[in-house]
Structures are given as structure tokens and as C-alpha cells.
Design goal:
The chain has 120 residues and is mainly alpha-helical. 53% of the residues lie in helices and 11% in strands.
């Protein structure tokens, strides 16, 4: 079974009410978490966008804008924080180098366990 198929079964497409609830929560919760971690990490994004992306939970543009899928709201808060810190780390390292993961680990020592939550 592919990872994407497994993810669809564990997190089926929500109905319109659930989707609206996820979008509302994403618009409230994600900027708060980005603000919290950006202050800790001393990294400031140019802006935040909530998207409906199906294949990625977050991204960071070369213009330092962060995007997050509202679908991320279907996961535990620990997983959400991992995605936030991951995308903020891209403001310093636009790659997945050793230094990139060292930066994440500095703020989330348990990041590997948090990342696993996204694959369940």
C-alpha cells in the first residue's frame, strides 16, 4: 500500500463542514504557532498563506513566504509544530542539509517522533 493511499485512509477527505472547520482553525492556529517559533528561532517570514495542497503540508518560497495546507489541521499539534519549525528553518537553509536538521533539533529535540506522526 502506498504511503499516500494509507494517508488518505487515515485522513479521508473531510466533508464541507469539516473542511470549513479545518480552514478556520488553520487561519487562527498556524499564524500563532509561526509567531511563537519565529520569535524563538529569530527568523521572520515575509508572510503566511493557507492553501488546499494535498501533497505537501508546508512550503517556503524564495521570497520567504510560508504556505501551509489546511489539511495539516487533521494531525496532532506536535506534528503541526514540526511542520512550522521545518518551514521556518528553510528561511535560513533552503535545503535539507545537516545544518538544517540541526537547527530543527535545537528547537524540537524530538522532531523525528513528531515527523513520524505525519506518516501515520
Amino acid at each position: 500500500m502506498t504511503r499516500q493511499r494509507l494517508r488518505r485512509e487515515n485522513h479521508p477527505e473531510p466533508d464541507s463542514d469539516e473542511k470549513a472547520c479545518c480552514i478556520k482553525r488553520a487561519r487562527e492556529y498556524l499564524p500563532e504557532r509561526v509567531g511563537f517559533y519565529s520569535s524563538l528561532m529569530d527568523l521572520q517570514p515575509a508572510g503566511i498563506t493557507i492553501t488546499g495542497a494535498r501533497t505537501r503540508f508546508g512550503s517556503c518560497s524564495s521570497k520567504k513566504r510560508l504556505s501551509f495546507s489546511w489539511r495539516l489541521m487533521q494531525y496532532p499539534d506536535e506534528a503541526i509544530d514540526y511542520v512550522v519549525v521545518h518551514e521556518l528553518a528553510h528561511l535560513r537553509y533552503m535545503n535539507h542539509s545537516k545544518e538544517f536538521y540541526e537547527l530543527i533539533e535545537k528547537f524540537l529535540p524530538d522532531y523525528k517522533q513528531r515527523r513520524k506522526l505525519l506518516k501515520e
